[in-house]
Specification:
Strands 1, 2, 3, 4, 5, 6 and 7 form a seven-stranded mixed β-sheet that branches. The chain is of the alpha+beta class. It is globular. The relative contact order is 0.20. It has a single domain, classed as Nuclear Transport Factor 2, Chain: A, CATH 3.10.450. It has three helices and seven strands; from the N terminus they run ααββαβββββ. The protein is about 30% helix and about 40% strand. A hairpin with a 6-residue loop joins β5 and β6.
């Protein structure tokens, strides 16, 4: 068996932390739009359990839909660093009040090409009853 090493190195944790905090947690729409263009490919696809979006405007629409319904006291956090290999990364996250248990948690899985996220799949964890 031959194992081939790829030449490019991806900072999975750096890119995915940036994606979470500079885009999904950013309530300032202008700052968020700047970050979207830096982090995602122009043709990015976002897949959520009940939604699908494409492009920069699609990412912005998805994030705005989440943040517009959430109280200002809600913040994002992560369960450890993101990990990945071969252009696929994953990161576990949570969202809820800064002082309290998360309201929702999940895992983001991304595809990365040329240092930009080309596909984001969001998996939500079942919440205890």
């Amino acid at each position: 068996m031959i194992i081939q090493q790829t030449g490019s190195t991806i900072d999975y944790d750096g890119l995915m932390q940036t994606h979470l905090y500079r885009v999904f947690a950013e309530r300032d729409a202008e700052k968020r739009r700047v970050a979207i263009r830096e982090i995602y490919a122009e043709t990015v696809t976002v897949l959520e359990p009940d939604a699908e979006a494409t492009g920069y405007d699609g990412v912005d629409h998805v994030v705005n839909a989440i943040l517009s319904k959430a109280p200002l006291s809600f913040v994002f956090g992560t369960f450890g660093p993101a990990v990945g290999h071969h252009g696929i990364g994953r990161m576990r996250w949570h969202f809820g009040p800064a002082e309290g248990p998360p309201v929702v948690s999940g895992t983001d899985v991304v595809e990365i090409v040329d240092g930009k996220i080309t596909k984001l799949s969001v998996f939500l964890d079942p919440m205890p009853a």
